[in-house]
Write a structure and sequence with these properties.
Layout (H helix, E strand, L loop, with lengths): L1 H15 L2 H5 L4 E3 L3 E3 L7 E2 L5 E7 L6 E8 L7 E4 L6 E2 L3 E5 L3 E5 L5 E4 L7 E6 L5 E5 L5 E4 L7 E2 L3 E4 L3 E5 L7 E8 L5 E5 L10 E5 L12 E6 L5 E5 L4 E3 L11 E7 L5 E7 L8 E6 L3 H4 L14 E4 L5 E4 L4 E3 L9 E3 L17 E7 L1 E2 L4 E5 L4 H9 L6 E5 L2 E5 L7 E2 L6 E7 L34 H15 L3 H16 L12 E2 L2 H7 L6 E5 L2 E7 L7 E6 L8 H12 L9 E7 L2 E7 L6 H5 L7 H21 L14 E3 L5 E3 L39 H16 L7 H4 L5 H10 L11 H5 L1 H15 L2 H19 L1
Parallel strand pairs: 37-41
Antiparallel strand pairs: 1-11, 2-8, 3-4, 4-5, 5-6, 5-7, 8-9, 9-10, 11-12, 12-13, 14-23, 15-20, 16-17, 17-18, 18-19, 20-21, 21-22, 23-24, 24-25, 26-27, 28-29, 30-36, 31-35, 32-34, 33-34, 33-36, 38-39, 39-40, 40-42, 41-42, 43-44
Helix pairs in contact: 10-11, 11-15
Length: about 800
């Protein structure tokens, strides 16, 4: 009877307990096992239950999940590894263990989002082991085909090593798991380094702020080989002669009673934590961290420092930095306290000579605050009063630092801001007396917005356009695509994105400063330094006499008809009333006899052309920010100016980059000033070859569509870092960029557009959206309809 009852229990277990749970008695996961991102989904556990692998629900968004590995038995459920993606995944996403390709993560529609890069071979099983290492084993092999220990994110666990060339990278913020700018790297020379970096790759580091000094210059074979975090929680660099340089404390709490981890925190501090294995205890304790004071240790010529630009770093608890904007400044992103700060007031050098600066500006005085770099001048010796007075009369001076009877003037962006009690300095931070809290960007009230008949656009207004334009495009596409839920979802996503990008603009009635020709001759030293030539004439660099670094750009419009004085002043008045962060600001003009010149603010980082076509290639995040900025500027010119402005020559050479690499559109409003026979093309069309919309060749009326087409070409160039026309002998069919992009889209090979750009490939959704925007901008509606029809047909076939 007892035997029969035992058989009954066995049968009951087989029927009511999932097979993959039985298989995990040893931590093993069989092929074709899967987990779906839902509330309460069961992860894969290690044999002891210490670690779990699966989906974690993000607290700030209950519909978003992260594929990760975490401590299971403690209250915090601390994440120690996560899939290298740019965005969390929506509810309903799924990952499974494919017998040939390894772990595969896909969204609810089945689109592949991430996969493991296997060394090779057929998969036998996966293993979630008690060290926290998730491994994929091949048939008949003792070496893993893939393991999380060899593909770390920001954390090391006991028994894990970091070999030469390997690195940890911080996450962007405490709640943002995308890649940050701090790296822990085992260098090829054998040193363990903490570095800052703008580009997510293994080279071109900006600044080293910690060095283990384990490189042997006399005998390279005795240099550091790898970073070891052993099973007892001891961390050391193992050298070629088997000597060890211990980095953390030699008295490490018992590993049998405590969990250990070493994490490169989002703020750049490398920290060894330990946590009691008692499930009733809470909180991680700090055993060791480096550097001792990151605020002072970072002092690089590139990058903002420990905190963002214009921010101030102070050392907090456990040697972790705390960042605060100074008075008169506020965070660019309110959700990122460690990011950049912006001035809450505007500073314009064309105010010079219009009254006393004391009437407009005052100082906020703070002690022990310093920005060691960003100097534009110094006064030695000086008094506090002279230091303040000099900064008031220098329009570019944002802060004056006074120390030991010396004065240093600083300009924005202020980098490496820190509190340093050892310097005995006083900082005078210049602010406007009439400063008001910054406006929060929001959607205008449709009921109070002035409407106008906007011409139709070539493309969907995804990157900064109005809601009503979206409906215009929808009206064109709807008859052929009615009932397509795919298109509706795309439009809703894009509409949401547009609303989040809505800029705040402001138009004033002020007129810019009028210069004499003699003044501009002196400013440019008789037009000595030429910056470039274009359809509008020649561009020169100049320095205003007031201030030591009041650099300006001067355009000499030698191609404007001399009799067009009225038109010139009309256009200058229109341009001077444009105020937007993505437009180059017009400071003044000269209209004297045959001389017509425009004076602009100087853009320190040059043209977009030199940035995206140069070496090294800018990061994907930099390129997307630039593309979005250009779209915002065009929206302002087309829809929000009191007089609509059509640029007619959007191209990389006419996009300039400021100190923060923010895109600024230049030469807008100048197309009406050009004589028709002085255009750069041979077809009497204003514009540049490759960027001119097809309807221009049919003598169609000029509308904002011409700028939209040019923006589409420019967007494809930004995505690929390739010129719209290349040498046909070298590139063959790929010489014409827009045709190559369309071919790649139709063949399902979009990855070819960005090649080895890991950041872009990890940001797959946004990458595909940007490509689609570019295609929509430059190709005719019938091609777009055909593409969408193909997409919908494929989805329909899959559903069947």
């Amino acid at each position: 009877m007892a035997i029969r009852f035992s058989y009954f229990l066995v049968i009951l277990l087989l029927f009511f307990i999932p097979l993959h749970n039985l298989a995990q008695n040893n931590g093993r996961i069989p092929n074709n096992s899967s987990i779906t991102a839902t509330d309460g989904s069961t992860p894969w556990f290690s044999p002891s239950g210490d670690f779990a692998f699966g989906f974690q629900n993000l607290q700030d968004n209950k519909d978003q999940f992260l594929l990760c590995l975490w401590y299971e038995k403690i209250q915090e459920k601390t994440i120690v590894w996560h899939a290298n993606m740019s965005d969390p995944v929506p509810q309903g996403s799924r990952f499974n263990l494919d017998p040939q390709r390894g772990l595969m993560l896909s969204d609810p529609q089945g689109t592949n989002l991430w996969k493991t890069n296997l060394v090779g071979g057929n998969i036998d099983y996966a293993l979630m082991n008690d060290t926290g290492n998730f491994v994929i084993m091949g048939s008949g092999s003792t070496d893993p085909l893939w393991e999380s220990f060899r593909n770390p994110t920001d954390t090391m666990l006991p028994t894990q090593t970091l070999k030469r060339g390997s690195f940890l990278v911080s996450q962007k913020s405490e709640a943002n798991f995308t890649q940050g700018r701090f790296y822990l790297r085992m260098s090829d020379r054998g040193n363990l380094l903490l570095v800052t970096q703008r580009v997510p790759s293994n080279s071109n580091y900006d600044y080293v702020y910690y060095n283990s000094q384990t490189s042997d210059t006399t005998n390279a074979t005795n240099s550091g080989n790898k970073l070891v975090f052993d099973e007892n929680g001891l961390m050391y660099v193992l050298k070629g002669n088997n000597q060890r340089k211990i980095l953390n404390s030699s008295s490490v709490p018992s590993a049998s009673d405590n969990y250990h981890r070493v994490t490169l925190n989002f703020d750049g501090v490398l920290t060894h934590y330990y946590h009691s294995r008692d499930s009733n205890s809470s909180g991680w304790n700090v055993l060791w961290s480096q550097p001792d004071n990151i605020c002072i240790n970072i002092l690089g010529n590139y990058g903002p420092g420990a905190c963002g630009y214009n921010n101030i770093c102070d050392l907090g608890k456990n040697n972790r930095p705390v960042c605060n904007c100074p008075k008169g400044y506020s965070l660019v992103d309110p959700n990122d306290a460690y990011g950049n700060c912006k001035q809450d007031f505007s500073v314009s050098c064309d105010e010079v000579g219009r009254g006393s600066p004391e009437d407009s500006y005052s100082f906020f005085t703070v002690r022990d605050v310093d920005w060691p770099l960003s100097d534009i001048g110094e006064i030695i010796p000086s008094t506090e009063q002279n230091c303040q007075s000099a900064c008031l009369n220098e329009c570019l001076c944002a802060v004056a630092i006074y120390r030991n009877n010396n004065c240093w003037q600083k300009k924005v962006p202020l980098s490496n801001g820190r509190i340093d009690y050892s310097l005995n300095v006083t900082a005078f931070i210049k602010t406007r007396k009439d400063v008001v809290p910054p406006l929060i960007p929001s959607l205008p009230n449709p009921g109070h917005r002035q409407t106008k008949n906007c011409p139709p656009s070539h493309c969907l207004p995804i990157l900064g356009s109005h809601q009503k334009q979206s409906w215009q495009i929808w009206a064109i596409l709807a008859p052929s695509l009615l009932g397509s839920s795919v298109l509706v979802n795309i439009l809703l996503i894009y509409k949401k994105r547009v609303n989040s990008f809505r800029p705040t603009s402001h138009v004033t009635d002020s007129v810019c400063h009028s210069f004499t020709y003699k003044e501009l001759v002196e400013v440019t030293k008789d037009f000595k330094e030429e910056l470039g030539r274009g359809a509008c004439g020649i561009v020169y660099k100049g320095v205003m006499p007031i201030g030591s670094r009041n650099v300006v750009t001067i355009k000499k419009l030698d191609r404007v008809a001399h009799e067009a004085e009225k038109e010139f002043m009309t256009e200058v008045n229109v341009i001077s009333q444009t105020h937007h962060k993505n437009l180059v600001h017009l400071i003044g003009y000269c209209n004297e006899g045959p001389h017509r010149l425009l004076v602009y603010e100087y853009m320190s980082n040059g043209t977009l052309a030199s940035f995206i076509f140069g070496d090294p290639k800018p990061t994907w995040s930099q390129r997307t920010n630039i593309a979005t900025g250009i779209a915002r500027g065009l929206e302002y010119l087309h829809e929000e100016c009191s007089t609509q402005i059509i640029h007619c020559d959007i191209k990389p050479q006419n996009i300039l980059l400021d100190d923060y690499y923010v895109a600024r559109i230049s030469d807008f409003g100048l197309s009406k000033l050009l004589m028709i026979n002085q255009s750069r093309t041979l077809t009497n069309l204003r514009g540049t070859r490759g960027y001119v919309a097809p309807e221009r060749f049919r003598n169609s009326q000029v509308t904002v569509k011409v700028d939209v087409y040019s923006f589409g070409v420019l967007l494809l160039e930004i995505i690929t870092c390739r010129k719209n026309y290349e040498n046909e002998e070298s590139y063959g069919p790929e010489a014409i960029l827009r045709d190559w992009v369309l071919d790649c889209f139709q063949e399902g090979k979009l990855e070819s557009l960005v090649e080895s750009d890991i950041e872009a490939l990890n940001d797959k959704k946004q990458f595909e959206r940007f490509v689609m925007v570019g295609i929509w901008c430059v190709h005719h509606v019938h091609i777009i309809l055909a593409l969408l029809f193909n997409i919908i047909s494929l989805i329909y076939m899959v559903l069947l």
